[in-house]
């Protein structure tokens, strides 16, 4: 009776359950929701980004009936070209999300592989045996949707990233009526966004930012530079509105921000009057108090435009006294140090900086506790699985579920790769499959290799010492003086005496050692370096016989 | 008339002005306040810790009349043995701070060099031409002091780290009477703690933690493990009080925490009944619900006890279902990712984790905005210099100064190394001296070397490729096949084909190249590796002629 079982499998991301990819499977048919990437943590050295491990799908390629993308953020669309490389299934998305997908696919040369279907929020689409209601949700990007997935095993509500904003910038609140309708139909399972489960109360409306912007614009004596995410379309709208009110022209800089702005304008999700927009060149030639510049770099990325401005390393212009920088974003955990250092450097260069801690120039795009409880009470599910959060968030979200009356045994806190099954209306936590993530590191897509990471970690601490020996293949004796060099170890002027000492020691070992020569040299070098300068570089020995 | 000038110079730390060291200079006499260290930021690869650059003092060794340590935290005492290596001056500290200094000095073999003087809060000490009133301040360690420094140029109030806690755990509030007395005498300058200048309102009293602890203790079904800073003596007192109330025995683990606990008990700053204390071995053999274990690791440090418990790598015991971990600390910026990952891992292992976001199990030890304004209004200084903060904090603190009526021209926001002079009651921002920090990296104490950091950064990203060549010194031709190895580059099973390809290319270059051989090989290797696998490792070539 396998075919009567609904299987749900969250995949990918480190700990953020099902954020990057969620798999729904029924009767030999599969629906994939989202295909996103995550940026590496600070200790994932050299890794470019991370995508879900979708090995599970590769064995069932032909069963994948569709891929739904809930909204246009990187953590939901960023792995789409990797997925399409393996799996040819039609994609379903709302107009703006589709527009952003097209930009993304074109950039990765994967445009031709994709079959894209536009769905309007409010529509219902049959994808294999899944009948999916797309319903509008507010989030920090327009045109986001949640899903009502009707399966023969019951109705599953998948919120996507959401907040319950009554006064969103695009005047399009979350579709409460649809949620109420679901509850009337009877909801088997709610899968709901846990990101802000530690935050009390309600997340403030995007609209509150207008006040902080208004104040900052009123006070700014010179140029205004607004830094935010490239995908924060509603923030672009708010900045444009403020610019129009204050008779300033608006220029965008940064490839991804400009691309997103263009597609959002073209599709009608962003209303900026033509005569308000200027190029950055024009902006830089206008009086300072008639200009607003919007750019990326709000996460302190050193190579972003704001990062380069903070270091005085941006080629188009420099920060100067009288500039006002509005830092319209919240640091993602792990980025705090870089963000604050950027703010300090901007202050140092003479800018006034307006940031979250001193004015409400950013709000979250995710529901807080009261909204999460509201969602639970609107949908009235039989079962509840918190998703889109680290373990700590999902635990808190589970407590909220208990508070609104969901029985403990009907709540499952699961990790990526954990299969959950529903049969005859009953939930069962089933087997665990590989559900982690894979690294994209250069051109290589691979599982995590702890030894490689450990080597990079060691290299980053005290660098590397390279010892090259040439031995006579007949006598086994040194044929030349050993060559020693280093990278990342010490300033080179400080190493000459140390290395000549090390050379003598090696020559001595080489004169008496045999099969264990390499090991003896490396051990001896390590000991000597630690004793002399208290460092532990990696030691690499190359022995060539001639 | 040089001698009539009071010079003030904040030193050390990255951006946190005067936090690690402040220099007061008058008439050829110098008073040093604090000698602390900072822990490196995430991008300071391989650096153990950072100390102030006190080059300025080395030229004036004999003029240093005394070193005052305001309290026993690492960022105020941690560089003392480096300072004493260069400068022999008597140290002044309150009893607990002295006790912690002695432990620190003994551990660094610098105990014999130190002349230590105990000063009680409330006492006045003449140090050269500086007459110093030590006044009690509340902070997250007992026995902290601020200073009223009477100089011939006027009275300077140096708050040290402080908060205005009306109900501190040791029942010893900040000495308001002394502050009022200063204002009566007339204060030339206030130098005040800016750490929390972005926080509205008042910092909650340490006492509020008791409620959260009480609730967590009441609910805990098994062992309770409390993680905090090794120096948080008042937290130890609160944990002990809760343990006594709930008939649990208390065990401390971790060298620094045990050392600090012992010295604080010995000096009467920590009141734990003898029969409440047990060893960790005893604790592990008692029923789970009769035990509290206190340890370090609240900043997510992987090698700390909590860090090892989270990874299942602690040798004394493992986390198990039923354990309650109370994470009693706030992540220092830059540590968030590690802290949250530790919490997630503890949850994964079955512990219930109580942390700041879900219960008030930690409060700050620093004054918030209302307290900072209170300090300004109590002291009524003519001039105001925010200290102990990054630039962003000091700017906010300066705004508070403006709000309480200090004229803008009487407020100076300065950076480390900026000399401020007072003459005839007038402030002047004078010259800038090297006032940054020096790295302690292994046994080497040195200025920052950007090239070395850059090499470590590159090594950490894509590792290193090592190419060794042996050339015949007569013909210049390869005497053996090139040897190629790598560290941190790729998993070694994936490199064999790539490296054999590279070997051929090198042999080809070696056959036709001459003086530019090394450069040609490295360039060619870099190009090939990038084209083939999109990585940019460092390439090191060693050429030996035989």
Describe this structure in words.
- With 546 residues, chain A is α/β, with parallel strands linked by helices.
- Chain A has three domains: 2-201 and 364-446, Ribonuclease Z/Hydroxyacylglutathione hydrolase-like (Metallo-beta-lactamase, Chain A, 4-Layer Sandwich), CATH 3.60.15.10; 206-355, 3-Layer(aba) Sandwich (Rossmann fold); 450-545, Roll (Ubiquitin-like (UB roll)), CATH 3.10.20.
- In chain A, 31% of the residues lie in helices and 25% in strands.
- Chain A has 16 helices and 25 strands.
- Chain A has an eight-stranded mixed sheet. In chain A, strands 8-9-10-11-12-18 form a six-stranded mixed sheet.
- In chain A, a hairpin with a 2-residue loop joins β10 and β11.
- The longest helix of chain A is centred in the last third of the chain and has 17 residues, at 496-512.
- The relative contact order of chain A is 0.12.
